[in-house]
Amino acid sequence: MSNRIFAFDVDGTLTPSRSSIDAEFGKWFEKFAQTYPVYLVTGSDHPKTLEQLGKPIMNLVQRSYQCSGNDVWIRGETIRSNDWKLPYSAHAWLENVLEESAFPLRTGTHIEQRPGMVNFSIVGRGADTAQRQRYAEYDQAIGERLNIADLFNLRFAELGIVANVAGDTGMDIQPRGADKSQIIPELKQLHPDAEIYFYGDKTAPGGNDHTIATALLSQGHSVFPVNNWQDTFTLLKQTVEI
């Protein structure tokens, strides 16, 4: 493969989770996106990603695959969106899980419907940075989210719905196949001869980058697991010249 395109998760890969991109990295990434084809693929909705990365970067990327590829944007305009909704039985099950969790803090917006998917969070989308960190430490200690995802996937397998750990505090839930891996055929159509480089912080089994990472590796492309945006910045500087 003679040329390369770059696809990135956002939370935990280009930015701290739910936070804005680092100023130095942001300036570098703007130059990078002017030099190479860049695509975003994130579980977040478009307003949140715009808040995190800013309009200059969002206007430079080729496409922004929001909500795990279920809501696709080009330079501030949506070009298609999936209207799937979570079935009532799954919604009720999540409400019961929320009630039974031993984690004591609730900040609101725990089951958030997004285009083509749902984000579920025990602590809630209203949590500030300290509250999110508190839940992240709790989850790291007991593995609550992965356990919930495993139970959900067993319970709703017949409905074809899949849950994966996402970010530091949430879970992404969508129909099987409507995850981040769904963008690969379009990337290959847009760049038939290119090698795809993908960067994500949740590429391990159970994470919402796992399916796209596995599919890309099986097709001979390159995957770079990272722990944070600093890893991504370091790897990019080792990989490209701008």
Protein model, in words:
There is one protein chain. With 242 residues, this protein is α/β, with parallel strands linked by helices. The chain has 2 domains: 3-82 and 179-239, Rossmann fold (3-Layer(aba) Sandwich); 88-175, Hypothetical Protein, Haloacid Dehalogenase-like Hydrolase, Chain: A, domain 2. It is 38% helix and 23% strand. It is built from 9 helices and 11 strands. The chain has helices at residues 23-35, 46-53, 55-60, 88-100, 129-142, 144-155, 184-190, 210-218, 229-239; strands at 3-8, 38-41, 63-66, 71-74, 77-81, 111-114, 117-121, 161-166, 170-175, 194-200, 222-225. The strands form 2 sheets. Strands 5-4-3-2-1-10-11 form a 7-stranded mixed beta sheet. It is globular. The model has no long low-confidence stretch (mean pLDDT 96).
Strand and helix layout:
Elements: E1 3-8, H1 23-35, E2 38-41, H2 46-53, H3 55-60, E3 63-66, E4 71-74, E5 77-81, H4 88-100, E6 111-114, E7 117-121, H5 129-142, H6 144-155, E8 161-166, E9 170-175, H7 184-190, E10 194-200, H8 210-218, E11 222-225, H9 229-239
Parallel strand pairs: 1-2, 1-10, 2-3, 10-11
Antiparallel strand pairs: 3-4, 4-5, 6-7, 7-9, 8-9
Mean pLDDT: 96
Second-tier CATH architecture of the largest domain: 3-Layer(aba) Sandwich
Proportion of residues in helical segments:
25-40%
Q: Number of helical segments?
A: 9
Q: What's the count of strands? A: 11
What shape does the CA trace take? globular
Order of helices and strands: EHEHHEEEHEEHHEEHEHEH
Query: Would you state the CATH class of the largest domain?
Result: Alpha Beta
CATH superfamily of the largest domain: HAD superfamily/HAD-like
Model regions low in confidence, pLDDT < 50 over at least 5 residues: none
Structural class: alpha/beta
Sheet of most strands: 7 strands, mixed
* Radius of gyration based on Cα positions: 17 Å
> Roughly what fraction of the amino acids lie in strands?
15-25%
Q: The CATH topology of the largest domain, please?
A: Rossmann fold
Strand order of the largest sheet: 5-4-3-2-1-10-11
Cα distance spanning the termini: 20 Å
How many structural domains in the coordinates?
A: 2
